[in-house]
Design brief:
With 332 residues, the chain is mainly beta. The protein has a single domain, classed as Beta-galactosidase, Chain A, domain 5. 3% of the residues lie in helices and 44% in strands. It has two helices and 26 strands. Strands 9-10-11-12-26-22-21-16-19 form a nine-stranded antiparallel sheet, with no helix packed on it. A six-stranded antiparallel sheet has the order 15-24-23-20-17-18, with no helix packed on it. Strands 1-2-3-4-5 form a five-stranded antiparallel sheet, with no helix packed on it. A hairpin with a 2-residue loop joins strand 4 and strand 5. The longest helix has 6 residues. It is globular, with a radius of gyration of 19 Å. The protein starts with a strand and ends with a strand. The relative contact order is 0.16.
């Protein structure tokens, strides 16, 4: 029997892809609707434990409550008042909508059924590439982006390799974010230890929009209550916070770590650049404070309105930008 396996399947009405490391005791399942990770399981002595707090059935995949494991392109997080300017042109993502109903978040592909572009397994890995051309000119976004997301399961863990290509005829604002939720036990997150290797946090208003200019950036030396540079218990802290200036490990990866001392389970979310958003799931409708979202982001939320992000989000016509991140299960 080969070590790695890759196959198509169904979860109720929804097509999914299954990747498995038979020898290493790891398996992952991804829904084609939204390209969301549903499960990331490890064999613990004959019993499987799921580190992913994803959608549980086809109904949840369709309703996508909580944006669990959402692929966020061409922007992650929120855009203030659903308005921004790019190339000197003002844009409105919700023309005709007024008041509190105005809200634009997490990009345009959460409701897209991705095409299965490649599915393969060999002695080293199992891999699937999912693609979509759902990002096309629409109100407030007169641009066209082709998106490909490759999930790779190998001996080191699960990797996402994202390619964003501007297939339009003008420069476009575009960046990547991922919205995963992780669990380490069937318990509240309060006893879990979090470590975020950041030097700054991003201060926001009540709508989770970063404050204007330099006021958005706070050194963690000046915010000890939110400082997780050394691992410590989450306790009763409510976290819905972005951190930047992440410090790399010796291999160059930026790792945010989560550990449950009671069960001994631990994982690391890694990325090659950008910032991390941590969320203790206090406002979700299902299983409040029983998972932690650790969200690798290429740029901060509302980056379309941040002058300091202008170069990072700009994607020239014909150009492609890539982003890599992933998850490692830490074995004691």
């Amino acid at each position: 029997m080969p070590r790695f396996l890759a196959a198509e399947a169904m979860l109720g009405t929804q097509p999914v892809v299954q990747l498995e490391d038979a020898e290493g005791g790891r398996r992952a399942r991804i829904a084609r609707l939204g390209a969301v990770l549903l499960n990331f399981e490890a064999d613990e002595g004959g019993a499987w434990f799921d580190y992913a707090d994803g959608y549980r059935d086809d109904a949840e995949i369709v309703t996508r409550s909580g944006s669990r494991f959402a692929i966020m392109v061409p922007f992650g997080g929120r855009i203030a008042d659903a308005r921004y300017s790019f190339g000197g042109q003002p844009q409105d993502l919700q023309p005709g909508v007024v008041g509190g109903a105005r809200a634009s978040r997490h990009g345009f592909v959460r409701g897209a059924t991705f095409e299965l572009a490649a599915l393969a397994a060999d002695a080293e890995r199992a891999r699937v590439t999912l693609t979509t051309d759902a990002i096309r000119p629409q109100p407030g976004y007169p641009h066209a982006i082709d998106l490909a997301v490759t999930f790779t399961l190998d001996a080191t863990g699960l990797t996402l390799d994202v390619a964003m290509r501007n297939v339009g005829d003008s420069a476009a604002p575009c960046f990547f974010g991922w919205h995963p939720y992780f669990r380490l036990a069937d318990a509240l997150v309060d006893g879990w230890e979090l470590q975020i290797p950041a030097e700054r946090l991003i201060r926001t208003d009540a709508d989770l929009i970063a404050l204007l200019g330099a006021a958005a950036y706070v050194a963690l030396d000046d915010a000890p209550a939110m400082d997780f540079r050394e691992p410590r218990a989450i306790a009763d802290l409510i976290i819905d916070q972005s951190y930047d200036v992440l410090q790399p490990d010796t291999d160059g990866r930026l790792r945010t770590r989560l550990r449950d001392p009671a069960s001994g389970r631990a994982l690391a979310v890694w990325q090659e650049r950008g910032l991390i958003h941590a969320f203790t799931a206090d406002t979700i409708s299902r299983d409040r404070r029983r998972a932690v979202a650790l969200e690798p982001m290429e740029c901060m939320a509302n980056a379309f309105n941040r002058p300091e992000c202008a170069e990072a989000i700009r994607l020239e016509p014909g150009a492609e930008r890539r982003y890599r991140c992933g998850v490692e299960i830490v074995v004691p």
